[in-house]
Specification:
Structural class: mainly alpha
Largest sheet: none
Strand content: under 5%
Number of domains: 1
Distance between the termini: 40 Å
Number of helices: 4
Radius of gyration: 14 Å
Order of helices and strands: HHHH
Helix content: 55-70%
Number of strands: 0
Shape: globular
């Protein structure tokens, strides 16, 4: 199995553990922009910019870079944003 395939499987498995499934709806553009802002990448209002950011994130995590924020993409984006917040809290406490 390729690394990309493995990341996809892992993302799906982890998503299942926290309640995400393939049937989960794609996030709305405002929610996606908030998640990217939490990652330190604020986006403007344009749809092309959002689609490009989703594609870049998908490529980074090993998903098919189609620019569509499906359940796996949204799950991983939310997970990464949560981890960034946890790291920031940890650094502030240190």
């Amino acid at each position: 199995m390729s690394a990309r395939g493995m990341l996809s499987v892992v993302g799906t498995a982890v998503g299942g553990l926290i309640g995400w499934s393939d049937a989960a709806p794609a996030a709305d553009p405002a929610a996606l922009r908030r998640l990217f802002a939490e990652l330190g990448s604020p986006l403007g209002p344009g749809e092309a910019e959002l689609t490009a950011a989703v594609r870049e994130f998908q490529a980074y995590v090993g998903l098919d870079a189609d620019g569509v924020a499906g359940p796996r993409t949204v799950h991983l984006l939310a997970r990464y944003a949560r981890e960034v917040q946890e790291l920031e809290r940890f650094e502030q406490a240190a």
